[in-house]
Amino acid sequence: MADELVHYEVRRGIATITLDSPHNRNALSAQLRRELKEHLTAAASDDQVRVVVLTHTGTVFCSGMDLKEAAGASAGDQGVNEFPAILEQLWTSPKPVVAALKGPARAGGVGIVAACDIAVAANEATFAFSEVRIGVVPAVISVTVLPRLLPRQAHELFLTGEAFDAQRAKEIGLLNSAVPVDGVDAEVRRYTDMLALGAPNALAATKEMLQQERSTNLGEVFADMLKLSAQHFGGPEGQEGITAFKEKRKPSWVPTEG
To answer: Pfam families in the record, alphabetically (predicted)?
Structure first.
């Protein structure tokens, strides 16, 4: 549809979700939130989709909540109430999600970047937790951001609202890679090509494992991890992967060109 703000395309097992609301710097308006949720749901439920790429048009990746819509609304009517569901979709997606930024991210936009499994940005991109400077709190995004950041850096950047560049974002754990703007697409493709080699169920289970809270009892942790490991060694994907390795061929889940 010509008036949609988020586009969805699937090619070679890669679902590309594109924020396309440059007139308001890809702010998280009600329409954009709704369409983003719908496309994330579609990607998660499509067996043909192996990896999700979240990208944008225009000069800004995402400027955060739409402040024009927020003005004059009561606490119960704020659009931010819908935002946790989007971050949770990204965080818990059974398909790996790669963020591709060629421009800045602010506030809720940084929360989205943090919720993705892998994030690639242009060197020119900047970031900021600008909430305190307009009298609000970066509360919702803290759920996805704090697990990524070094604690001392989180205190500084959340409290000051200072903008920081892509290189610092990489150093503190927000980004995986910072490259020249004309190299972002190639770097994203490098990651998606690697992710597509992983077995779908194994990738989903590995994501879930990475996000689990672990007991302080080492024996219990080993018991749980042994059960998970054995299930996948003996499962259909594990057996196919082992057979493919022995036969020196690609496993059946690796996408074919075309």
So the answer is: ECH_1
